[in-house]
Amino acid sequence: MSQGDFSAAGLDKLSPEELKFLNDWLRRQGASIPETVVGRPAASRYFYPEGTQREAVTSRIAGDFTGWRGNTVFKLENGQEWQQVQTGLNDISLSSPAVKIQPMMFGSWLMEVEGCDCRLRVRRIR
């Protein structure tokens, strides 16, 4: 499922808890992430070589973290860049907080920021 399909289906409106419930339910039903997304292998679409599993990313925000405001880009100390895909805003000020970005169903990713008890769906852009 592409990010556009994900949004068109209204799944981007689910809370992280609702999305986790849906993911768990789909796994219990034997559902899996499709091998292709928009004509390309799903793994390569999301910066992962074909045939590899998507794994959680643990790093820190490079510099100050001031929350998000629409299409915020988060630069990590490991060199990766992730962009906000979920609507909403959050104002907070933290210095280089630890982050964990976990794969979710349908190719989406959930970023958790240490120190603010906040989670946000993101996509990798670099």
Principal-axes geometry comes out as globular
As a percent range, the share of helical residues equals 10-25%
Our measurement of the CA-to-CA distance between the termini, rounded to an integer number of angstroms, reads 21 Å
The figure for the number of domains is 1
Quick one: biggest sheet? 6 strands, antiparallel
Proportion of residues in β-strands: 25-35%
Q: Helices and strands: which structural class?
A: alpha+beta
Number of helices: 3
Average pLDDT confidence is 78
SSE string, helices as H and strands as E: HHEEHEEEEEEEEEE
Order the strands across the largest sheet as they lie in space.
Answer: 3-10-11-12-7-6
What's the gyration radius in Å? 15 Å
Low-confidence stretches: 33-52
Task: Tell me how many strands there are.
Answer: 12
Can you offer a commentary on this structure?
- This protein is an alpha+beta fold and 126 residues long.
- It has one domain (3-124).
- Helices cover 18% and strands 33% of the residues.
What labels would you give this structure?
126 residues, alpha+beta, six-stranded antiparallel sheet
Short description:
The chain is of the alpha+beta class. It has one domain. It contains three helices and twelve strands.
Task: Describe the secondary structure blueprint for this structure.
Layout: H1 3-8, H2 16-28, E1 36-37, E2 40-41, H3 42-45, E3 57-60, E4 64-65, E5 68-69, E6 73-75, E7 81-84, E8 89-90, E9 94-95, E10 98-103, E11 109-113, E12 118-124
Antiparallel strand pairs: 1-2, 3-10, 4-9, 5-8, 6-7, 7-12, 10-11, 11-12
